Amino acid sequence: xxxxxxxxxxxxxxxxxxxxxxxxxxxxxxxxxxxxxxxxxxxxxxxxxxxxxxxxxxxxxxxxxxxxxxxxxxxxxxxxxxxxxxxxxxxxxxxxxxxxxxxxxxxxxxxxxxxxxxxxxxxxxxxxxxxxxxxxxxxxxxxxxxxxxxxxxxxxxxxxxxxxxxxxxxxxxxxxxxxxxxxxxxxxxxxxxxxxxxxxxxxxxxxxxxxxxxxxxxxxxxxxxxxxxxxxxxxxxxxxxxxxxxx
Length: 247
Prior knowledge:
It is built from eight helices and 16 strands. The chain has helices at residues 41-52, 69-72, 75-81, 91-97, 104-113, 118-131, 204-214, 234-242, and strands spanning 2-5, 8-12, 15-19, 22-25, 30-33, 61-63, 86-89, 141-142, 148-149, 157-161, 170-174, 179-181, 187-189, 192-194, 221-224, 228-230. It has a six-stranded mixed beta sheet with strand order 1-4-5-6-7-8. Helix 5 (104-113) runs antiparallel to helix 6 (118-131) and helix 7 packs antiparallel against helix 8. The longest helix has 14 residues, at 118-131. The protein is globular and about 55 Å long.
């Protein structure tokens, strides 16, 4: 299996945000894990071309870790450019991605804003308005509720359920390459592996339990959607998180 880590940059107000979808391909499949922020389809195209000589027209599937805005932001546009893409997500996340249910992040933001005032409330309202602009996209394939292989053309690719940040969050594991793509189950901050931001993690206890699942995997490299690639001291870093050394 071939893979490359994309780097999609976007200026968000005073911040520069970079996210890292994972591109995987074989002779019969070209799969993207997560779909960036809104208006990043052209950047996805350029990154795919530069890193792998592939384009959106070659994609056969997009697997979504969860329904946050920075993971599904360009999903609908990718689907418009290539109607043959199979959008894949867990059962829980599918209803939010497709717009059948209101985004849990929107509901969280609405509740959070009730306790704000002044400049903080103004910022919260702007963020909420931004979340409401995210375009839903129909999910074509609801993933199995069990961990394991799920795409026949990529037999070494395993689905791993890692709920906590969002209730139906999934990660991907490349068995032969010993690469773990975590979505938002983990993050990398200044080269240090950490749990996802608790402010945006709906169940921090479950998030920690998901990390404990990963300890049994032989891992040579972790791809964090926020932070990029960690390729050293992986077992020690995971153990530190599960033992509370991140506090």
